[in-house]
Amino acid sequence: TTEIYTLSLHDALPISVGYEKLFNPMMGYEDEETFAEALLDGQPEPPKYYAQMKKVNREGPKVLGDYQLPAKLDANDVLGVIADGGFVVDTRPQKMFGQAHVTGSINIDIGNLASWTGWFVDYDQPIYLITGEGDLGRVQRILHEIGVDDIAGYYDSAEVETAGLQTSSYDIASPDELSDAIIAGDVTLIDVRRQTEWDEEGHLPNAHHMMLGYLKENAQQFINGKPIVVQCRSGNRSAIGASILKAAGATDVTNMSGGIRDWKKAGLPIES
Predict the structure, then answer these.
(1) Which of 78, 110, 105, 106 is CA-nearest to residue 93?
(2) Contact by Cβ (8 Å): 176, 266
(3) Fewer beta carbons within 10 Å, N or C terminal of the chain?
(4) CB-count burial class (<10 Å; 0-12, 13-18, 19+) for 107
(5) Which residues contact 140 (CB under 8 A, 6 or more apart)?
(6) In this structure, how many other beta carbons lie within 10 angstroms of the beta carbon of residue 214?
C-alpha cells in the first residue's frame, strides 16, 4: 500500500520566513544584459578548459582505444623538447620543484592538476610529463578527466634528477623576510589570486594583480630585471606562478610562503 501525505506550503515554512524568500531574485530582471551582469557578479573566472569541455560535450569524447600508459621517454631528450616549444609539466611536490627542476618546465603538482592544467595547456598540442612511474596512472586519469588526451610521453623524475638536468630553482621566503623589500618597491610583487579575492580581501602594497590562469600568457610584462615575488592566499597557487615565471625566463623569483594570510597575521599593511 502507498500512503499519501499532503502538507500546505504555509505549514512547510517557518513563521519567520516570508513568502518573498520563495522566489528566485534572478526572475526580477527584464533585460538580458542586466540579468547576465547580476548572475555573473562575484563569480570566479571560468577555467579556459571549459571551452574544451563544451566541445567534448557537444561532439563526444575522443575514442582512446585500449587503455595504456604514456610511453617512457629518454630523460636526456627533455631539454630538446622544451627548446622546440614542447609543453612539459612536472608533477612533483612544489617544494621539490622549487629546490631543483628542469629549466623551461612548469610545476603543477598532482593535487592541482585537475584545477590548473586546463588553464595553461594548448589542447591542439601534446603534453609531456615529468613524473614518477608510480604516479603515472593517476596523473593520466586526472588529465583525461579534463580532456587532456594527447600525452606524448613521460620522463621519469628520478632519471631526470640522476642525469643532472635539474639546474633551475626558485626561492621560498616568509612575509616577514620579504616585507621590507615589498613595501619599498624593490621587488616586482605579483598577486595571483582571483579578482574577487583581490577586491574583497585587499592586497599588499605595490602589488600587481594577475590571476594565475592568465599569468602564462602575460609573464613577459613582469620580467624586467627586478627580483620577482609571487603571492597568493597561502603559497599554493603562487608556487605554480613561480614555476611559470621561471619557465618564461625570469631568473630571480621567490614564492611567498603563507601568502596574504600570513602577511595579515604578521600585522603587515594591507591596501584596498
Answers:
(1) 110
(2) yes
(3) N
(4) buried
(5) 69, 70, 151
(6) 14
pTM of the model: 0.81
Helices (H), 14-93: 32-40, 49-59, 78-83
Q: How many contiguous H segments (helices) and E segments (strands) does the chain have? A: 13, 9
The strand pairing partners of 128, in sequence order, are 88, 153
Contact of 107 with 94, CB cutoff 8 Å: yes
The alpha helices in the chain, defined as continuous H runs, are: 9-12, 32-40, 49-59, 78-83, 94-99, 113-120, 136-145, 157-162, 175-184, 195-201, 215-218, 236-247, 259-265
pLDDT digits (tens, 9 = 90+) for 154-196: 999 999 999 999 999 999 999 999 999 999 999 999 999 999 9
Instruction: Write down the pLDDT at residue 52.
Output: 66
Q: Which residue has the cell 502538507?
A: 7
Q: Provide the 10 A C-beta neighbour count for residue 223.
A: 16
| 3-class SS of residue 196 | helix
pLDDT in the model for residue 18:
52
By CB atoms closer than 10 A (0-12, 13-18, 19+), residue 100 is middle
Q: Which amino acid is at 137?
A: G
Tell how strand 171-173 and strand 253-256 pair up: parallel
Question: How sure is the predictor about 15, in pLDDT bands with cuts at 50, 70 and 90?
Answer: very low
d(CA 33, CA 55): 25
Mean pLDDT of the chain: 88
Check if the beta carbon of residue 44 is closer than 8 Å to that of residue 196.
yes
**Confidence check: pLDDT of 53 > 90:** no
Q: Is 67 helix (H, G, I), strand (E, B) or coil?
A: coil
In angstroms, the CA 80 to CA 112 distance is 26
